[in-house]
Design goal:
The protein is of the alpha+beta class and about 270 residues long. Helices cover about 40% and strands about 15% of the residues. The protein is globular. It starts with a helix and ends in a 5-residue tail after the last helix.
Length: about 270
């Protein structure tokens, strides 16, 4: 809304689901680089760079970064029947009961899945992964104790924590969340460099004129100062982010590089 008002242009959102967001990304990668076709990229696209063997595009080389927009914390939640109150106790319990637990995700290759795989690597635990078609059915089974552990986006999991249906142990971002300031981070819980979030930002096809990129970045940064936008972000448990195009480009590249070993270690792969 704010971009449209600032630029005097109508922004039409076209949802192009499928192939873990690759269909939408491919469409924009092939679009005319004039600044009129943009892509709201998410962390999933940086994971897909390693997860998919035969992508028709490169998320770094085939796009021009505009701006990072928001980061949404993931949260580690467990079924309340587990006798654990923090991450250290969870790790000890998993090691003591190697065949009793499994962890859910909203789907293979998602940041939620990869957060679980990163946890397994860092904690040295082996816990089976059960992928679901979205967070809602995964949370339903977590509450029902069909699965016992899950990393999920804070907006979908937090209401169940507040209702006492789930127990929260930690957030996965580098900083504590304003939504739940009492929750420690994974890093505070003993796992260095455990910084995982579901983030979203704007990119354009490679070759888009630099002046167009700079103009779009400027209006995006300005929009983030709007109280209504800030209120909407806060309602999602999200944190607004202001970056230059170069900073966002470096961030995307770093995400591709950091997720690659986790994807490979998980054994997950999509043709």
């Amino acid at each position: 809304k704010e971009l449209g008002e600032d630029l005097g242009q109508s922004f039409v959102v076209e949802n192009k689901p499928g192939a873990g967001s690759n269909i939408g990304a491919e469409l924009v990668a092939r679009a005319k680089p004039d600044g009129y076709t943009l892509y709201m990229v998410a962390v999933t696209s940086t994971i897909n760079q390693t997860l998919y063997k035969n992508l028709s595009f490169d998320i770094v080389k085939d796009f021009a970064p505009i701006a990072l927009v928001i980061k949404v914390p993931n949260i580690l939640v467990v079924n309340p029947s587990l006798p654990v109150k923090n991450v250290k106790e969870l790790v000890a319990y998993v090691k003591a009961h190697p065949d009793k637990l499994s962890y859910a995700s909203s789907g293979s290759g998602t940041s939620i899945h990869m957060a679980g795989e990163l946890f397994k690597l860092r904690a040295g635990v082996d816990i089976p992964h059960i992928p679901y078609k979205g967070s809602a059915p995964a949370l339903t089974d977590l509450i029902g104790n069909q699965v016992q552990v899950m990393f999920d986006n804070m907006p979908s999991a937090w209401p169940h924590v507040q209702a006492g249906k789930l127990r929260a142990l930690a957030v996965t971002t580098a900083e504590r969340s304003a939504t739940a300031p009492e929750l420690p981070t994974m890093m505070e819980s003993g796992y260095d460099k455990f910084d995982v979030s579901s983030w979203f930002g704007l990119i354009a096809p490679a070759g888009t004129p630099p002046e167009v990129i700079e103009k779009l970045n400027a209006v995006m940064v300005k929009a983030q100062d709007n109280p209504e936008v800030q209120k909407a972000f806060a309602g999602l448990g999200a944190v607004g982010e202001k970056t230059t195009p170069a900073e966002f480009g470096a961030f995307i590249k770093s995400e591709v590089e950091s997720w690659a070993p986790v994807v490979k270690a998980s054994g997950a792969q999509v043709d």
